[in-house]
Write a structure and sequence with these properties.
The structure is a homodimer. Chain A is α/β, with parallel strands linked by helices. Chain A has a domain of 110 residues: GMP Synthetase, Chain A, domain 3 (2-Layer Sandwich). In chain A, 28% of the residues lie in helices and 24% in strands. The first copy, chain A, contains 16 helices and 25 strands. Chain A has a 13-stranded mixed sheet, sandwiched between helices. A seven-stranded mixed sheet of chain A has the order 7-6-5-3-4-8-9, sandwiched between helices. In chain A, strands 23-24-25 form a three-stranded mixed sheet, sandwiched between helices. Chains A and B meet through α1, β9 and α7 of A and α1, β9 and α7 of B.
Amino acid sequence: MKGLMQDWPLTVMSIIDHANRFHAEREIVTRTVEGPIHRCTYSDIHLRARKCAQALQKLGMKQGDVIATMAWNTHRHMEAWYGIMGMGAVCHTLNPRLFAEQLTYIINHAEDQFIFFDTTFVPVIEAVADTLPNVKGFIILTDKEHMPETKLKNVYCYEEIVEAEDGNFEWADVDENDACGLCYTSGTTGNPKGVLYSHRSNVLHALAANGADAMGMRSVDTVLPVVPMFHANAWAIAFSAPASGAKIVMPGANMDGESIYELLSTERVTVTAAVPTVWLMLLGHLEANEVKLPDLTKVIIGGSAAPRSMIEAFERDYDVTVMHAWGMTEMSPMGTLGSFKAGMETLPFEEQLDIKVKQGRAIYTVEMKITDDDGNDLPSDGVAFGHLMVRGPAVAGGYLKGEGGNILDEDGWFDTGDVATLDPLGFMQITDRAKDVIKSGGEWISSIELENTAVGHPDVVEAAVIGILHPKWDERPLLIVIPKEGSGLTKESVLEYMDGKIAKWWMPDDVVFVDEIPHTATGKIQKLTLREQFKDYTLPTATAAE
Amino acid sequence: MKGLMQDWPLTVMSIIDHANRFHAEREIVTRTVEGPIHRCTYSDIHLRARKCAQALQKLGMKQGDVIATMAWNTHRHMEAWYGIMGMGAVCHTLNPRLFAEQLTYIINHAEDQFIFFDTTFVPVIEAVADTLPNVKGFIILTDKEHMPETKLKNVYCYEEIVEAEDGNFEWADVDENDACGLCYTSGTTGNPKGVLYSHRSNVLHALAANGADAMGMRSVDTVLPVVPMFHANAWAIAFSAPASGAKIVMPGANMDGESIYELLSTERVTVTAAVPTVWLMLLGHLEANEVKLPDLTKVIIGGSAAPRSMIEAFERDYDVTVMHAWGMTEMSPMGTLGSFKAGMETLPFEEQLDIKVKQGRAIYTVEMKITDDDGNDLPSDGVAFGHLMVRGPAVAGGYLKGEGGNILDEDGWFDTGDVATLDPLGFMQITDRAKDVIKSGGEWISSIELENTAVGHPDVVEAAVIGILHPKWDERPLLIVIPKEGSGLTKESVLEYMDGKIAKWWMPDDVVFVDEIPHTATGKIQKLTLREQFKDYTLPTATAAE
C-alpha cells in the first residue's frame, strides 16, 4: 500500500524558490574578481538564475547537457549554478588548480558544452581551448567593461547575455533523480573520475547539513564559505544557506588571511568553513595584528585533518567553536561533523580537544562502519582501525560512464579508501588512507599519525611517511622530512622527539631530509610520487635483517 | 541523464538504525502508565522494536497490514511504532478522546487488524470491541503483573509477546513511498478522513524538523513531547529525536502542571512541545509554587494559537524562548515555526512579541501562499488575508480510500481551510478558519480576532464568534460569551471594551451569554454546532435594516 502524500520532487530549484519566497531580503555579499564589494539578495539571485537559464537556452543548451564552470565563490557563480541546474542541465565544476592535461581529459570526458569562467582563468582556459573540440563557447563571468582581451573564439560576456533576458522562465520539469551536478575526484591514481550528483542527492544532503547538530545554518547566520564551489560542492553551502535563509559572504579570489579577516569582520560573519591552510593564514593574521572576531561563533574545518594546535587556538584565544568535518567528493561531500554530545561541554579543555581532533559523528542519512581486509565488521571501541565504509542517498553509487566499474560491495557499501576508528559514542577518527597504511608484520601502522607526531618537532617544517619494502616485516615506515632552514636538524633529534609519543614498533626505521614534498592539486601529499621516488631505497634495518 | 548516487530509500527504520549506531547510549525516560519512571536507551528501543515486529509476524501480520495504537507517550508506544512500521505495516494512531461511534467508524474504515493500547483505555476499547468485526486481537501495553481484567477476546500482553522474541530480525524491504503511518483528521464536518503517511514523507519531515531554524533538535538536547503520539505524529518528535540523538522524556498519562513540571525539572529537559492548554497548567504551577526551570531553553507551542500573555510569561518570567508553530494532520504536521530572522533579537520586547504571536515561517520543503476566493495570489504585505495554500513532500495528496475526492487544485496546492496573512519577511499569521470567517458586505471579518479581543475583558471566560445571516450585509458577527460567574457582565461592557481595539465595522452586532461553548475532541470550538444552535437568531441590526 502506497502512502498518499504529495508527489513533490526534491529539486535544487525548490531551494532557491524557498529563499526567494521566505528570505527575499537576505544578502549575498561578494568580493568581486574585479575588486569592489557587490551586494545582492536571494530575490536577485533567483531572478538572475532564471535569466541565465534563458540565456543558455538561447545558446542552444537543453536538458541533460553538461555545462562547466571554473570560478571563485561569487554571486555570479551561484547564479550560474542555479541557472544551469534550473534549466535541467548538469553543472560541472572545474578545479582551476588541475594541470592542463587533466583539464583537457575532464572537459572532454564530461562532454562539456560551454564553460563559464572568471577573468582570472583566461590563461588557464586559453591554454587548453584547442584541445576541446566539443566546447561550443565560453562565457566570461564579468561585465562588458571588464571583458578581457582573449584569443578564444565564441566568447560571451555573462552580464550581457544574462541582462538581455527578462527572467520569465519556468524551471525545467526534472525528475528528482536527474543529474544536476558533476565533480571529478582529484584522482591520485589513474584518471580523474566523475561523481554525478542528482537533484535528490543535493537536496537531501542540504537538509542533513542544515541539521542543528551538523552545520546547522539558521536564518540569522551569516556564512562565509572559503571552501570553493569548484571543490566538493562548497560543502553544500550554496544549497544549505538559501534553504535556511542565511546571508552568504562570497570571498571571490582572495583567500589570504587579511582578506578573509576583513570580510569576516566587516560583514559580521557567524559561521565559516575552509581547509586548515586557510585557517593557518587567518590565525597568523589575527595574532600579528592583535585583532579578534567577536561575531564569529563557529569555524568548520575539513578537507584534511585540523591540527590540535589550530583547534586550541580558535577555541582558547578567539572563543570560536571549532567543528571538525570529514567527507569526500563522492559523499556530496559531508559525512561527519564534530558537534558535542551530552556531557562533553563540561569536560576539561584538554579532554574536549581529544574529542575535537576526531573527525566527528556521521550525520543522519550517512551510514558508516569499519571493516578488516576480509570485510568483517570491526568494533566501535576507538582502538580498532579498519576500512571506512559508507552508504547513503548522497553517496556515489558509481562514476560517470562506468569508470572504475562497480564501486559498491554486495551490500551497497562504498569504500572511502580511508582507514579509521569509531569510538563507542560514534565519533570517527581518520587514521590513514588505506593505501598509505604501512603493513608491518600483519599489523597496520598509521602514516598520518607518524607525520602528525613528527611535525610537532619545532625544526620540522613538513613530514611524510611511506612504507618501504622490508624482507622480514613486509613493510616498515620511512620518515621524509623538510627541516627548518638552518636548524641543523638531525635524524637522532627527530626520533628522540618521537620516542614515547607512539608505540615502540611504530618508530620509523629511517629518516631522510628533503627540500620539497610533492602535493596534489588539492594540497594533499602525493605519496604515490614519494613511493616512486624511494622505490629503490633500502632501509638500514633491512640489511641488518638479512 | 540520471545522477549516479546510491539508491538509498528514505525509511523510518533508517532513523532508529542511526540512533542505535551513533546514539546507542542516549536515554528514553518514561513516566509509565503503571506509575514508576522507566529508563531505557535507543539501543533498547532498537532491539525491542525488532522483537515487536517479530511478535506481529507470529500473529500473522504482514507487510501492508494496518495496526492501530491507542496509547500515551511511552517507550513501549515508540517501540510499537518502529515495530509496526519496521515490518512494513502501517501504524494507525487512535485518539482516545474520540466518541465511540467515531472510533468504530475509523477502525473499520482503516481495516485495523490489531490494536495496541494502554491499560488506561481498556474501557474505551471494550465499549467498541463488538463493533469491530475485522480486529483480530488486542495487545495491552503492559507486563504480566499489570494485565487488567477484561471481557475482550484475543488479548495479548505486550511484554510477554515481545520478550518471547530474540530480536534477530531484518527490517522489511519497503519502498520509500510505501505507507507507514495513518492518522484521521478530527473532522468537524462529515466523517473523519485518513491521512496516509509514507516512509519518505516521515523521513523528509523529520529532516526538515531538525533544521536549526525549525525544532532544531541536537544530541545534547533533552526533549519532552507533551504533544501526544496519537495526535499528528507528536509533531515528528519520535522521528526527529532519534535522528539527532536527543534524549526523550515521555510523560505517559499525566499532563497536569505538577507532573509536567516534575519531569521537566528532574530530567533537565531543554526543549518541550505542547498545545496552549498544557502550558496554561504549567505556568499556573510555576507561579503558584514560585519555581523556575533553569535547563529549559525552548518551548514549542502549536495546535492552536498561543496567547500573547503566555508567550510573554515564558519569555519574561522564565527566560524560555517560545517558538510558535503551526501545522495540521495533513502536513505531517509541521508547516511553520517562529524562529527569528536577523535583527529581530535586538528589537524591543513588545515588538518581538508582535512577531512571536504570528505562527512563523514555512520550513524548507513546505511551499505556502495565500489566495482570494477566485484562486488569485494575494500579496505578502502582512495585511491581505486569504486562503492558506500549501504544497510539499509531507503534505497530503489525498485521503484514504479517496474520501473527499481530489483535494488538490490543478497546480497541486492543498487548501488548509485556514485564512491567513503573510508578511514581507515570510511570517504567516492565521486569521481564521475559512468556514468561520464572517463575510460582511464582500469583506472578511476574522472571528478569531474578535474572540481574542473579547477574552481580554476580565469578566469573559470564553468567547466564540459566528456569522449570522443579515439582509443587508450577508453576514454580521454574533459574539457568544461565557461570563465570569457572579460578575454581572453586560453586553454594553463587552462592546465598550472592544471598541477601539478593532475596526469599527468589525464590531459584533450582538452579544449573547451562555453557560457552555461546545468543543471538539481536540479542544477546538465547535462552530458548526454553534451555527446550528443560533441558525434562527435574528440580529437587532437585521430588523433595523429591513
